């Protein structure tokens, strides 16, 4: 890990995460929580309410590129998001995954996914990704994403 804050490009045009982060204002679903180093958003293409994505505010393509300062903030944030999701969604655990392999989504992003007690066995573990990348008609609506984002934000202790 590097210890310098801001090593690497701040934003890369054409990167979905960088492009969103460059917008002057974001709806609650795109800004559940943010700091100078990280932003949390509700996944836009999921059928699972509360599926969150944690993004570094600068363009990073591998976890090894995170600075020590970014890493120090990330750990407690992930724990707090898990607690907030349990409070808001009633989930029994949260999955945390990071791949950043899809075209246009190479920017490091961590999926923080609420796993309900009644989630079908065929959707547990990595198979939960069957609930991502769905057609618009099957997705959590933007209005519901905003409602969840505000509830999760209110439940967070991480500041």
Give the name of the CATH superfamily: HIT-like
The oligomeric state of the chains shown is single chain
User: What is the straight-line distance between the termini?
Assistant: 24 Å
Output the strand order for the largest sheet: 1-2-3-5-4
What ranges have pLDDT less than 50 throughout 5 or more consecutive residues? Answer: 1-6
Overall 3D shape = globular
Q: Output the helix-strand order.
A: HEEEHEEH
Beta percentage is: 15-25%
Q: Radius of gyration in whole Å, from Cα?
A: 15 Å
Indicate how many domains the architecture comprises: 1
- How many strand units? 5
CATH third-tier fold name: HIT family, subunit A
Largest sheet: 5 strands, antiparallel
**What's the CATH first level?**
Alpha Beta
Instruction: Please tally the helical runs, counting DSSP H or I stretches of 4 or more residues.
Output: 3
User: What structural category arises from helix and sheet content?
Assistant: alpha+beta
Shape-level CATH architecture: 2-Layer Sandwich
Can you give the mean pLDDT? 88
Helix content: 25-40%
Describe this structure in words.
- This protein is α+β, with helices and mostly antiparallel strands and 159 residues long.
- The chain has a single domain (16-155), classed as 2-Layer Sandwich (HIT family, subunit A), CATH 3.30.428.10.
- It is 26% helix and 15% strand.
- The protein has helices at 16-21, 68-89, 142-155; strands at residues 33-34, 38-42, 52-56, 93-98, 110-115.
- The protein has a five-stranded antiparallel beta sheet with strand order 1-2-3-5-4.
- A hairpin with a 3-residue loop joins strand 1 (33-34) and strand 2.
- Helix 2 (68-89) crosses helix 3.
- The longest helix has 22 residues, at 68-89.
- It is globular, with a radius of gyration of 15 Å.
- It starts with 15 loop residues before the first helix and ends with a helix.
């Amino acid at each position: 890990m590097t210890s310098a804050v801001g090593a690497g490009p701040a934003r890369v045009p054409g990167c979905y995460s960088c492009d969103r982060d460059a917008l002057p204002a974001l709806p609650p679903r795109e800004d559940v929580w943010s700091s100078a180093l990280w932003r949390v958003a509700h996944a836009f293409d999921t059928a699972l309410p509360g599926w969150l994505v944690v993004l570094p505010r600068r363009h990073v393509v591998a976890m090894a590129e995170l600075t020590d300062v970014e890493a120090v903030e990330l750990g407690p944030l992930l724990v707090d998001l898990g607690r907030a999701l349990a409070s808001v969604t009633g989930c029994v655990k949260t999955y945390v995954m990071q791949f950043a392999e899809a075209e246009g989504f190479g920017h490091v992003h961590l999926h923080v996914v609420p796993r309900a007690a009644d989630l079908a066995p065929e959707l547990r573990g990595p198979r939960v990704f069957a609930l991502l990348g769905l057609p618009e008609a099957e997705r959590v609506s933007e209005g519901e994403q905003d409602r969840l984002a505000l509830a999760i934000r209110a439940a967070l202790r991480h500041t």
